[in-house]
Amino acid sequence: MLNITIIIVAAFICIALILNLWRLLKGPTTSDRILALDTMYINAIALILLYGIHASSVLYFEAALLIAMLGFVSTAALCKYLLRGDIIE
Amino acid sequence: MPLYLEIIICISLLIGAVFLLIGSYGLIRLPDIYMRLHSPTKASTLGITGVLVASMIFQSHLKGSFSVQELLITLFLLITAPVAANMIAKTALHYRKKPLERTQNQELMETIRDREEPQKPSES
Amino acid sequence: MLFPMPFHSLLLFTVWLLLNNSISAGHIVLAVFFAITIPWLVSGMRDEHPKILKPWLAIRYVLMVMKDILTANVEVALLIIGPIKKLNPGFVAVPINIDSDLGITLLASTVSLTPGTVSAEVSKDKSWLYVHALHLDNEEELILSIKQRYEMPIKEIFGC
């Protein structure tokens, strides 16, 4: 049962990632793209944890933690850059 | 693995996946940036919590002892999601992104952007 | 003073044990070591010391917010799937009177995580919180609910 569920859930998350990718490519604004990236890293964490369950391994937890931290920092950095860049002009 | 554990894991995984999908679907579906902000901050946070709970139960069973590491990621995401949403909202306001036509109180946007006080002191 | 920042010490202790996912004697000793030395080293760098006056109220607040997050998620998910034409988004200015920065941050984060609202900005004099609502039915009701449900407990917890 667990194996089938994992496949279904993985499919769901992959569809979610494709939807995010669409928003990332379509835009229309930079804020939308940042938001799409922000959602994408959350989905990536879910996918990695899912793979951890599938492979019965604890190693993937560290990868998920790293993605969570780097994802937030990059979102914050991108927003800060956009906010500050305009003030200087 | 006992059946009841498997069922719990499956259910929380499925709940998580559905909410993650709804969050991303909202990102595509909603018409303007300010509305789109809502779907990842809320739906995706619950979605990831579902997957993390499933992972937590599974790893606890795997190791034979209680594993609560995954709570760290949940905690971290719960703290950072609103901050990220706030920063994206600020960016959108800063670039004067047009909201949807029927958005109420649109005249507030300039005030918000400049971090001023509202003109009319609280209508309530 | 052994614990200049007791809350941070507790947090460091817990997070260290969580990161290593063990409660063996060695890790507890290390966690205690970090919980004492790190706050001791950094306590001089802080200028504001917000104190949690009522820890029990804080725990109750966290539990309430957890419950609200759950309901908020389901509510927002339903709004997202439902017809878009019925959604009435809007900006709202919420008057706040919390003095401490930490209190305002907490309030803004809670507002972002709970039903249908994302906090967008705080005015310069820290007396207005600007909120974007996904579905704005009744402006006064929203302001009142934010003030009563979330602002009052935060004010009581930090005593300001």
Mind explaining what this structure looks like?
The complex is a heterotrimer of chains A (89), B (124) and C (160). Chain A contains three helices and no strands. Chain A has 89 residues and is mainly alpha-helical. Chain A starts with a helix and ends with a helix. Chain B is an all-alpha fold and 124 residues long. Chain B is elongated, with a radius of gyration of 20 Å. In chain B, helix 1 packs antiparallel against helix 3 and helix 3 (38-63) packs antiparallel against helix 4 (70-94). Helix content of chain B is 71%, strand content 0%. Helices cover 58% and strands 11% of the residues of chain C. In chain C, strands 1-3-2 form a three-stranded antiparallel β-sheet. In chain C, a hairpin with a 5-residue loop joins strand 2 and strand 3 (128-133). The two termini of chain C are 25 Å apart. The relative contact order of chain C is 0.14. The model of chain C has no long low-confidence stretch (mean pLDDT 80). The interface between A and B is large, with 47 and 51 residues.
CATH secondary-structure class of chain A: Mainly Alpha
Helix content of chain B: over 70%
Q: What do the pLDDT scores of chain B average to?
A: 81
Number of domains of chain A: 1
Number of E-state strands of chain A: 0
Counting copies of identical and different chains, the oligomeric state is: heterotrimer
SSE series of chain B: HHHHH
The total count of helices of chain A amounts to 3
Strand content of chain B: under 5%
Number of strands of chain B: 0
Supply the helix-strand structural class of chain A: mainly alpha
Rg of chain A, rounded, reads: 16 Å
- At CATH level 2, the architecture of chain A is Orthogonal Bundle
Share of helix of chain A, binned: over 70%
Per DSSP, the total helix count of chain B is 5
Q: Predict the CATH topology of chain A.
A: Helix Hairpins
